[in-house]
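User: What would this chain look like folded?
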Amino acid sequence: MKILCNSFSSWAASLKAVTKPKNKENSSQHMAAAKHRHLLCDACIVIFRGRKYPLGPGTRVTEHLGSVEQLHEGIKIGCAICDRLARHLASRLVRLQNIEQFRSTYDLDDYDRPGKIKFVMYWGAQNNEVYQLATNLNQLCRQINSGFDSAATVQVIQGWLRNCLDGHQQCYQRWKNAQEFQLPTRLVDTGPSGSKECRVVRTDSGSISGAYLTLSHRWGQSPFLQLNSHTIGNLTTGIPIAELPATFRDTVSIAHQLGIRYLWIDSLCIQQDSKEDWIRESPTMSHVYGFATINIVAGHAHGPEGGLFSTREFPYFGYFTVRSAWDSRWESNADYLLWDKVALEDDFEFAPLTQRGWVFQERLMAPRMLQFGKEQVYWRCSKLFASETWPQGALSREGKSLRFGTDLDDLDGDDAMEVQPLGELGDSCTEALSRGPIAKWERLVSEYSRTELTLPEDKLVALSGVAKLFQQTLKDRYLAGLWWSSLPRLLCWRRDIKKEQEPRVRPKYRAPSWSWASVDGPITFTTTNMEPPSMTNPLRIEYLITGVDGKIDPLDSDEMAQVKGGAITVRARLHPFKLLPKKYSCERLEVSVNGTEGTTITLGTLIIDAILDHELHDLQLWIMPALAGVQKEIGDNCGQIEGLVLQRRSGTRTENDTYERIGYFHAAADYEDQSTDTFGFYLQEHREDVQSGTRTVTHIHHKVELRSWVGPCQTVTIV
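Assistant: Here's the prediction, encoded as structure tokens.
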């Protein structure tokens, strides 16, 4: 049901009526920032005195602190840099009193603006990098003199929203389109500002209109107020706002300060003990968050009682200034502003809430996001990333990595890649690997795979809203996390062994084996593994398989949500692969591909998706090349080949054999042997000694000689 928001324009007008900050406040805050100089200890002040590069301009890395006692002394006198280093150690659960050996170095790099100082701390066998950016003092910075719920903080938030609607054309257009939209089935009516009660209301009567906020929060482990068959009576009649969990109460307070009456909170707007209600509501999340005015993010709270407003010491700066006094006539001295990039990353990107799978989608779908961190409040829209200390958004220019995720507003922008259908076998198609919607999809899925879900079966449904936005641009078939027109490329996902070396147990069925959604843990895609192209050595991607058919069996009517089955059928070339019995030593295995033994060489990778039920060398496996990256052409030689490791499904001996994916392989060309198409890979094997309880990792290298990857094709079905 579409509802015209008659009160939307009046609400916007009331927001604009809020008194704007006086212009002189900006200049006074700028002056206050310029005067704010923290004390530095001798070891830290020397960074900005004397010779900029004590060891010469060719050597930037310089010794900083030599012992934990020196760090203690800096903390004792109030050194801002030493204090920040100690805070980072504490955030990694490292106690200073437990450190025996400690030292740190710094790397000063100001060739590009903003300059960068990188501190690296070493203790025992560990190290930790701490980045601080230094820039000339030419951006407005604001010190924080009050709590999260103060009038000053609310004024900053009001300013962000007003400027977003007034000054950002893209944001304004999205806001304008939202004036006629489909309201969520239920909303929490908090009443006019100052109300003491709230209630859950249905919007299908047509009597509800106006802007609304959404809330992203962690559910935690303790019971809290939820909508279910036992509470629905009281919640629809009305309950005191004071009885809401702290995070909900604080959200009501922010809503009233912004003149917004309605909220959408998942635990109160979806009936939690009704599977039917969940099936009906969960596919609508793209609309719920996409049409909200702002998504409130309770970043630091571990549960509903954590609240939005944490306790912070103030005045809080999050930065400090230092006047350089380098003695070289070639160096320009100025006031430098130092702020801690890692601390901001920890507070914004790596807050407890951001590690949850559902929140990943919520933060991306919302047109505007207001995140309450542990130290300050952050704002993000399509044009601005800002914080209380940087209200005009200097961080969005100086800290690109602090911009969460991918901007979903420009999927069909100038860098959009034309989706090319799968061609005939061997046809090449050049793709912009790092551009376009498919590359963005790969990056999003990789980020999403690092989050956790309370219910593992939500793996696909918790990203379905984002998938629906992509489908509007791609106009493509969606198969359990993959897009049909880019099937060979997207099939080549792999476990990210840099993030997590050991495979996990394969979870209860929730997706076909060829889908990244079938496994837990971080994954990445093949394009990140290929060498970057250059003008003199271009990279061409060649699809080595052709799609014949693909289908999924959805759990309900939403084909982008949970599935209970699925299969793809392709025309491909399979090469039998088997690890031979051990020979020569306990650490060496030999491999048979197409019945030919290989010798060892360090080329490429073989990664198993999940822990197997049987020893790998007991299995008859198949290699299915899916993708070739051609960087050099020597005869018929390709630069890199990637694909799937398959196992025949038990009981299938038909012409259209059925297989399951168990892993991924990457093989690089052996250019020393140009007479054949020689590729190799190594297998990382995990061994466990039951008696001693020790676990070792052995890298076993294999060389595969195939005179051509273009053997006879067959029809292969993978489930």
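Residues 437-719 form one domain. If you want, I can go into more detail on any region.
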